[in-house]
Amino acid sequence: MPPALATLNEKQYLCVIKIPDHIRDDWETLQFILKYRDKLRRPMAGLSFLREEASKPGGLQRSASTQILSFGVSSSCSDVVFFCIPTSTMAKQEYITRNREWLLEKAKETGVKPLDKGIFYKVIKKGNQASPTPNRGSVVTAHYTGKTINGKTFDSSRGGVAPAFRLRELIPGWIIALQQMHIGDKWEIYIPAEQGYGKLNQPGIPGGSTLIFEIELIGIA
Predict the structure, then answer these.
(1) Any catalytic annotation for residue 213?
(2) Positive or negative: CA dihedral 196, 198, 202, 204
(3) Which of 157, 192, 178 is nearest to 220 (CA)?
(4) Catalytically annotated residue among 23, 33, 68, 171
(5) 154 an active-site residue?
(6) Is 83 a catalytic residue?
(7) How far apart are CA 42 and CA 16, in angstroms?
(8) Which residue in the list 190, 191, 197, 215 is annotated as catalytic?
(9) How far is the C-alpha of 201 from the C-alpha of 89, rounded, in Å?
């Protein structure tokens, strides 16, 4: 079982916040998040804040599992969950550095161009340049293949029907890149970890990974 709340070590756990889709329009909940977001996003301050709130009557209620410690805010914010994730699941600095260096070298290659936030791309095929580009609220239909810098594929839509996504619900790297693409464009996109999944491990994706996506934009709605 995980340690009790009072004995949590800031150096061993990282606090992050999850807002379930069904309460994103709840004004009181969002006010709470906005009020405390800076504290919650910094590991040490976030964990100290959770410890303080848990000690108050009617404050945070703790429920423990063997993998993570989760905290639900009481009253109308009961569906907001704070996760204290063991930092042992996070990327090692050597791996992070190797991925950053790979991206810097890739950026020097012929045909590779910059986008915002340290993202780069290479055009594989040009589509209809007269067609509109998506915005954050668009639903985009796209085929894609995702790889890490060692060439390992962690996800692909190829071989099936092209999936559709609400753009604003995707990782930041996709949101930034797809807004520059036209229907029919096929790009290879290089996304730094900060605009992907950050330092936390995902299935098939070590924390700190630079992500390589081949994306073909098929439709916009």
Answers:
(1) yes
(2) positive
(3) 178
(4) 171
(5) yes
(6) no
(7) 8
(8) 197
(9) 6
* pTM of the complete model: 0.63
Catalytic-role residue among 13, 144, 183, 220: 144
Cβ(192)–Cβ(119) below 8 Å = yes
Count of beta carbons in the 10 Å neighbourhood of residue 63 = 10
Residues 9-13 have a mean pLDDT of 52
Choice between 213 and 29, residue whose per-residue pLDDT is larger: 213
β-bridge partners, 139? 166
First to last CA, the chain: 47
pLDDT for position 65: 34
C-alpha triplet 41, 44, 46: angle, nearest 5°: 45
Interval 109-133 mean pLDDT: 97
Per-residue pLDDT band for 92 (boundaries 50, 70, 90) equals confident
Question: How far, in Å, CA of 162 to CA of 82, rounded?
Answer: 34
Residues 148, 209 contacting (CB under 8 angstroms): yes
As a whole number of angstroms, the distance between CA 57 and CA 36 comes to 18
Nearest CA to 61 among 40, 77, 37? 77
Residue with tokens 């410690």: 69
How crowded is the C-beta side of 183, counted as CA atoms within 13 Å? 12
**Known catalytic residue: 190?**
no
**pLDDT mean over 13-35:** 53
Cβ proximity of 115 and 196 under 8 Å: no
